[in-house]
Write a structure and sequence with these properties.
By secondary structure, this protein is of the alpha/beta class. The strands form two sheets. It has a six-stranded mixed sheet with strand order 1-2-10-7-8-9, sandwiched between helices. Helix 9 crosses helix 11. The longest helix is centred in the middle third of the chain and has 15 residues. The site of ligand AN7 has 22 residues, from helix 4 and helix 9. Ligand AN7 binds next to helix 4 and helix 9.
């Protein structure tokens, strides 16, 4: 049967009135990939599975929330949507608004979003406004606009975003035929950890799984408000997607951590980049730097010891595709060699 996206697939679990209002790019149904080479390389006792959300239509997990938020906006006859973004939300908002024949307005921190994401927002015809400030400034600004003008906010403060994103937890339980023991993911604005936890709890409530994972969230050291317990005024990290100092779902992220018996911890940019390279080179999977925080989190726990047992299942969400951020990929990789079109020079360069 033709796949029609997450709202259609999980319609009974989602708060949309009519299927006719679904706006979809056929997001979701992303692969859960068993990462045995990575497991061996880092000496992890648990089996590791990667939920490769980079394979969504705009290249990130944001499509799950956006299909739901835009479908609901259509149901409510909205004509335009607005969001602040570190990049991926703006790409998804722009694409789904285009499909829905709505106008999208997106605010991004100037110079601090990955090139692929900027190109997407521009290509899909959004009005792109760069702020001489950070994501947190931009989020405050769009909240003020949406409170006072007829434009729908599609940041994860919009509860329908969370509803859509929870379907990733459903897919994981469906694929494994159980819930995992651990779920690792990066934390920025904290909507996704909140959404997964909601999804796992609801699925268990419906009798679709009989356990819940420990939620293992990871922030970047320079942007770790939840770990530090205070707002970070000038967040900084190479993982620009999670360069956020005052997360909207702060309390809900803490609740997910505490109810599940999990953690929210921080990682250095070096740890994130080394996991980013490792997953690309062992599993053939290219994710963006922020996404690799989930793998860096597993590595940290393996080094600590005593966390995983044989037979445990740890799922890592790879939130966005590596092609989003070609600049960082090139920066951390060996430069290609240039030679003349000459067989001897080639043999010398190949060092077979
Ligand atoms: C690849 O696009 O906040 O903790 O404006 O793009 O749910 O915020 C992106 C966040 C992780 C963090 N990985 O998720 C935005 C935005 C990637 C991301 C996160 C983001 P949340």
């Amino acid at each position: 049967m033709l796949y029609k996206g997450i709202v259609n697939r999980y319609f009974d679990y989602l708060p949309l009135e009519h299927k006719s209002n679904i706006v979809t790019l056929c997001e979701g149904d992303t692969p859960l990939i068993k990462a045995d080479r990575l497991k061996e390389e880092i000496g992890c006792k648990a089996d590791i599975y990667l939920k490769y959300e980079g394979l969504n239509p705009t290249g990130s997990f944001k499509d799950r929330g956006m299909t739901m938020a835009i479908s609901k906006a259509k149901e409510d006859n909205a004509k335009s949507v607005i969001c602040a973004s570190t990049g991926n939300t703006s790409a998804a908002a722009a694409a789904y608004a285009a499909k829905a024949k709505m106008k999208a307005y997106v605010l991004i921190p100037e110079g601090k979003i990955a090139l692929g994401k900027l190109s997407q927002a521009m290509m899909h015809g959004a009005k792109v406004i760069q702020i001489l400030g950070n994501f947190d400034d931009a989020l405050n600004m769009v909240k003020h606009v949406a409170d006072n003008h007829p434009v729908t906010l599609v940041n994860s403060l919009n509860p329908f975003r969370i509803e859509g994103q929870k379907t990733a937890a459903f897919e994981i339980c469906d694929a494994l035929d159980r819930a995992p023991d651990f779920h690792f993911l990066p934390v920025g604005n904290a909507g996704n950890i909140r959404a997964y936890w909601k999804g796992y709890k609801e699925y268990k409530g419906h009798g679709k799984s009989d356990s819940l994972p420990k939620m293992m969230g990871f922030q970047a050291e320079g942007a770790a408000p939840i770990v530090l317990g205070h707002i970070v005024k000038n967040p900084e990290t190479v993982a620009t997607a999670i360069r956020i100092g005052n997360p909207a779902s702060w309390k809900e992220a803490e609740a997910a951590r505490d109810e599940s018996g999990g953690v929210i911890e921080m990682l250095s940019d070096d740890e994130i980049i080394s996991a980013y390279k490792l997953v690309a080179r062992t599993e053939g999977i290219f994710c963006e730097p922020a996404s690799a925080a989930s793998i860096a989190g597993v590595i940290k726990k393996v080094k600590l010891g005593g966390v995983f047992s044989d037979g445990d299942i740890a799922v890592c969400t790879l939130t966005g595709h590596g092609l989003k951020d070609p600049d960082n990929a090139i920066k951390v990789s060996p430069k290609p060699e240039t030679i003349n079109a000459d067989d001897n020079e080639l043999l010398k360069a190949l060092q077979l």
